[in-house]
């Protein structure tokens, strides 16, 4: 048996806002779908990013009667490599993205990073390698 990782699917409660965020703010090309649907895919390089209405997935897997969220620490993050964290930070800030961490070097990780959230609260990291 061979498993091939094809994409990440975010299960979102505000589909339209998330669609617009990934299309307009992050600048990803649409592979399938639009802001009026329940599912969409974006080209992000080697792996696609998909959005799906959270309640539809809950119905599909039989847990629609469970709470849709609980307050907790982040359980996942989307990580995007960029050429220059500071330049990307400035561009996204001009698009009204609110960062939860400003660009900073993380020597133990070997990267420079900054963090923000999409409209549904998903944590996103941009990073670039620190110079050797």
Walk me through this protein's architecture.
With 132 residues, the protein is an alpha/beta fold. 21% of the residues lie in helices and 36% in strands. The chain is built from 3 helices and 8 strands. Strands 1-4-3-2 form a 4-stranded mixed β-sheet. It has a 4-stranded mixed β-sheet with strand order 5-8-7-6. The radius of gyration is 16 Å and the shape is globular. The model has no long low-confidence stretch (mean pLDDT 92).
Key phrases:
single chain, four-stranded mixed β-sheet, 8 strands, 132 residues, 3 helices, alpha/beta
Give the topology, please.
Elements: E1 7-12, H1 15-25, E2 29-32, E3 39-43, E4 48-53, H2 54-60, E5 77-81, H3 85-94, E6 99-106, E7 111-117, E8 123-129
Parallel strand pairs: 1-4, 5-8
Antiparallel strand pairs: 2-3, 3-4, 6-7, 7-8
């Amino acid at each position: 048996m061979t498993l091939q990782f094809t994409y990440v699917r975010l299960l979102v409660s505000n589909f339209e806002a998330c669609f617009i965020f990934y299309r307009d703010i992050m600048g990803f090309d649409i592979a399938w779908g639009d802001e009026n649907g329940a599912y969409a895919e974006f080209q992000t390089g080697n792996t696609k990013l998909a959005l799906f209405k959270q309640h539809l997935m809950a119905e599909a897997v039989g847990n629609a009667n469970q709470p849709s969220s609980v307050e907790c620490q982040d359980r996942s993050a989307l990580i995007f490599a960029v050429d220059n964290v500071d330049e990307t930070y400035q561009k996204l800030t001009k698009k009204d993205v609110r960062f939860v961490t400003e660009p900073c070097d993380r020597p133990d990780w070997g990267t420079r990073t900054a963090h923000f959230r999409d409209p549904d609260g998903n944590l996103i990291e941009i990073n670039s390698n620190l110079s050797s």
